Amino acid sequence: MKNITPQEVAAHNKKDDLWIVIHGKVYDLTEFLPSHPGGQKIILKYAGQDATDAFDPIHPPDIISRYLSPDVCLGELDISHAGVMVKKESKADEQVRLAREKMPRLDEMYNVFDFESVAKTVLKPEAWAYYSSGADDEISMRENHNAFHRIWLRPRVMVNVKQLDLSTTMLGSNVSMPLYITGTALGKLGHPEGELVLTRAAAQKKIIQMIPTLASCSFDEIVDMARPEQPQWLQLYVNSDREVTKKFVQHAEHRGIKGLFVTVDAPQLGRREKDMRVKYSDDGPEEMDGQKDINRDEGAARYISTFIDPSLNWEDLAWLKSITTMPIMLKGIQTPEDAVLAARHGCSGIVISNHGGRQLDFAPSAIELLPEIMDALRAEGLDKNFEVYIDGGIRRGSDIFKAVALGAKGVGIGRPALFAMSTYGDEGVKKLIQLLQDELVMCMRLMGAPTINHITKDMVDIRNLKDHFVQSPVDYLGHHAYEQMLPRGRINKL
Ligand SMILES: Cc1cc2nc3c(=O)[nH]c(=O)nc-3n(C[C@H](O)[C@H](O)[C@H](O)COP(=O)(O)O)c2cc1C
C-alpha cells in the first residue's frame, strides 16, 4: 500500500478535494461527502486531518469497508515521515484533560450518583449531552428514579440472615444477582474501548451485558471479548431492510447470544434537546459551511438511527420467530395491554421501560407499571415461563429489591454503567456493580430476606406509588438544627 505523507494529506483540505485519515489509512472522501448520513460539515471539519477520534465513537470499525468502494482508500499515512500530523489539542480536549487530572480516587465513590457527578465534569460536552439527556422536559427521566421513593419497605425481623444468596437465573443463565447492563448506544463517546469495558466487567461480576445494535464496537468485537460461557444478550433495532435484520439476528444466534431484546418504543427517536444543542455548537468551521440549511434537529441520537423501521408491528413477531430460536423479548413495553399481547404472541418476556426517559416524555416509570402489568399477566394465566424485567432509574440496591418484590426477574442499568465506564473504566464498572451488590446485601439482610426467592410483594408498601402529586415532605426544622451543629464551611455541602 502506498505511503502518503502528512503534508500531502493536509494539502487536500477542500470540499472538492478532500482527504482524511482514519486509523492510519488515508481516504479520499470527495465523492462520498454529499451522501454522508451525518452531514457534510463534520467531514469538512477534519478535511486534510486525522479524524480517527471523531470517527470512532459513532461508527462501527468495519463500516468503511462495508459501505465504501475500496478505491477510496489511497494508502497509509507515512508515520516515519518528519512532522507526522500533530493533533492540536482543542479547548474541549484541554478541559477534559484538566478535569481528569482532578478526578477523585475510585475508593471515594460511595454510590451510583457519585459516578454521575464525576462524569459530568470529565466527559466531553457531546458525550455528556448524549448520555445524560432525556426527552423534552425530562419529566419521565427524573420520574424513573423518583418513583422508587414512593415505595416504602416492610422489614421482617428475627429471620436467620447469616448467609445470603443473591444469585438467580435470567433466561436460563446463572447470574450473581438480579441485575444486568442494558443496551446503550455509542460506548466510545465515553471510553476509547467502548462496550468492551462493559463486557469485561460483566464477566468479572457474573452479570449479563445486553449488546446494543448501535454499539461503537462491532458486534463481533464485543462477543469476542466475552469469556467462554459468558452469557450475552442482543438489543435489536429492526431495520427497514428486513434482510439486514435477518442476517444480523442469525449471526447473533450463531455466536451464542442468549436472548433477543427487540426495542419497540422507538419508531421515531425522542427529542433530546441537550443532545441537539451540542450538535449545533460542534459543527464545523463556518467558512467551510455551504450547508446553510443544515438540519439542526439532528443530535447524535437521530443521526445514528435513521434506519429503524417505524412500521414494525405485532404481525412482525411471527416473522421474527421464524428466523431465530433465541428467546424473543420486547423492550419498551409500557401498558398491561401490550404486556398481555407480547405473551400471547409467543414472546419469552418483556422489559418494562420508557427508554430511560429518552423517548415519550410523560411515559410512566417502569416501577410504577410493574404491579399492574404483573396483575394483568396473572389474571390471564400468562405469567408462567414469561420473564418480566424493568429498567430506568435504578440507582440503589433497594431499588433492585423493590423491583424483585413486585415481580421483576431482574433490572437493567443504563446510564450508571456508562458513567462508571467513562470515568474509571473497567475498575469503575466493577466498583459500581459491587456497590449495588453491597447495597442489595444490606437491604436483604435488614428486610429478612436471605435469598431472592424470599423477596415478596408483602415486603413493600406501594399505596403511594400512583400518587404523582405527593412530594416527600422536607424536615426544615431538623435540617436547620443539624446544619448549626456543623462547623462553618461544611454547611453548604449538606
Ligand atoms: C446513552 C443511552 C443510549 C441508549 N441507547 C439505546 C439503544 O440504542 N437501544 C435501546 O433499546 N435503548 C437504549 N437506551 C435505553 C436503555 O437501554 C435503558 O432503557 C435506559 O438507559 C434505562 O434507564 P437508566 O439509564 O436510567 O438506567 C439508551 C440509553 C442511554 C442513556
UniProtKB/TrEMBL annotation:
Residues 1-78 form the Cytochrome b5 heme-binding domain. It is an enzyme of class 1 (oxidoreductase). Homotetramer. Its EC number is 1.1.2.3. This is L-lactate dehydrogenase (cytochrome). It is found in: Mitochondrion intermembrane space. GO terms for molecular function: heme binding; L-lactate dehydrogenase (cytochrome) activity; metal ion binding. Keywords: Flavoprotein, FMN, Heme, Iron, Metal-binding, Mitochondrion, Oxidoreductase, Transit peptide, Transport. InterPro entries: Aldolase_TIM, Cyt_B5-like_heme/steroid-bd, Cyt_B5-like_heme/steroid_sf, Cyt_B5_heme-BS, FMN-dep_DH, FMN_HAD, FMN_hydac_DH_AS, L-MDH/L-LDH_FMN-bd. Residues 104-465 form the FMN hydroxy acid dehydrogenase domain. Belongs to the cytochrome b5 family. In the N-terminal section; belongs to the cytochrome b5 family. One of its GO terms (cellular component) is mitochondrial intermembrane space. It comes from the Eukaryota. Its main location: mitochondrion. Its cofactor is FMN. The keyword Metal-binding applies. SUPFAM superfamilies: Cytochrome b5-like heme/steroid binding domain, FMN-linked oxidoreductases. The lineage of its organism: Eukaryota, Fungi, Fungi incertae sedis, Mucoromycota, Mucoromycotina. It catalyses: (S)-lactate + 2 Fe(III)-[cytochrome c] = 2 Fe(II)-[cytochrome c] + pyruvate + 2 H(+).
